[in-house]
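ok so I'm stuck.
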Amino acid sequence: MRGKPPAPGPDRSVARSTARSAVAVSVAALITAAALFGALAPKAAAVEGPLINNISIALG
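replied:
not stuck anymore, here's the structure
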């Protein structure tokens, strides 16, 4: 007959807490990056369009 597995000790609970914190920080970083990209992408496209047109005219 098998006994119950040992209860998580302080090391395991600290490791789990650290892992959860790392995941939360990673998710927050991804959300922030997506928000910044969403905010900056239209501005980059607005700048890129005339720039490409000017290069095409200069080369043509």
